[in-house]
């Protein structure tokens, strides 16, 4: 299992969300979500789902409602999700403080994604620039309950839903990923999605991404 917080901390020290000497720009998902997610989209990020069954960005829709707390039993988590609170819909959120629920530790400041029942949860980044971007990130299934759940599938896609990176994780597993020199035009988007495998149990997923560009 990869230690998620270590990478996030290193990357947060390496980059900031401002230009350096007029040449380097970066966008840090964890930092931006901790600043606030009361709007959707919030800045360059949007929190989405795909209920259509057809994997095309035109079918992705914004999660409709902000909740703080996300659920009654997770008072330190604030999130975007459907108004139906039965647990079968996607969630995107972040923990205000570290807490443990049902043996799963939710770490302060690390974004949390959970897919719905046959409904991928999707994070969108909309480019504010013309130019090439580099992506570094880490994804981790943080539910470790033995015999419960079967992990998640994840992917990073471009505006045409072409897969740039993808993988599959079992419960408690993590993976780092990167992509370089992706050509973007202002207003074009990249999409990171998390989906269930065969069942929805124990699919809580930590994600952090830093996108950089040399201008």
List keywords for this structure.
215 residues, 2 helices, mainly beta, disordered N terminus, eight-stranded antiparallel beta sheet, globular, 16 strands
Characterization of this structure:
The chain has 215 residues and is mostly beta strands. 8% of the residues lie in helices and 44% in strands. Strand 12 and strand 13 form a beta hairpin. It is globular.
The percent of residues in helical segments reads under 10%
Choose one word for the global shape.
Answer: globular
* Portion in strands: 35-45%
Structural class: mainly beta
Number of helices: 2
Gyration radius, to the nearest Å?
16 Å
Number of beta-strand segments: 16
Helix and strand string, N-terminal first? HEHEEEEEEEEEEEEEEE
Q: Which regions contain 5 or more consecutive residues with pLDDT less than 50? A: 1-20
**Major β-sheet annotation:** 8 strands, antiparallel
Query: Gap between N and C termini, in Å?
Result: 36 Å
Average pLDDT rating: 88
Helix and strand layout, with pairings?
Elements: H1 4-14, E1 24-28, H2 29-35, E2 45-49, E3 61-62, E4 65-67, E5 77-81, E6 91-95, E7 99-101, E8 104-106, E9 111-114, E10 121-126, E11 131-141, E12 152-157, E13 163-169, E14 174-184, E15 189-196, E16 205-214
Task: Describe this structure in a few short sentences.
The chain is built from two helices and 16 strands. With 215 residues, the chain is mainly beta.
């Amino acid at each position: 299992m990869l230690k998620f917080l270590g990478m996030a901390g290193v990357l947060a020290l390496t980059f900031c969300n401002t230009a350096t000497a007029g040449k380097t720009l970066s966008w840090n998902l964890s930092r931006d979500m901790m600043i606030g997610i009361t709007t959707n989209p919030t800045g360059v990020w949007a929190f989405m789902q795909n209920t259509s069954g057809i994997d095309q960005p035109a079918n992705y829709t914004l999660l409709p409602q902000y909740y703080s707390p996300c659920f009654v039993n997770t008072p330190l988590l604030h999130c975007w999700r459907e108004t139906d609170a039965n647990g079968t819909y996607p969630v995107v959120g972040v923990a205000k403080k570290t807490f443990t629920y049902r043996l799963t530790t939710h770490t302060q400041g690390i974004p949390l994604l959970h897919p719905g029942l046959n409904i991928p949860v999707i994070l969108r980044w909309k480019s504010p620039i013309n130019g090439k971007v580099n992506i570094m990130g880490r994804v981790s299934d943080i539910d470790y309950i033995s015999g419960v759940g079967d992990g998640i599938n994840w992917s990073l896609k471009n505006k045409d839903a072409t897969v740039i990176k993808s993988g599959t994780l079992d419960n408690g597993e993590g993976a780092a990923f990167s992509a370089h020199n992706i050509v973007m035009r202002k207003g074009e988007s990249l999409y990171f999605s998390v989906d269930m495998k065969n069942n929805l149990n124990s699919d809580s997923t930590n994600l952090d991404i830093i996108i950089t560009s040399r201008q």
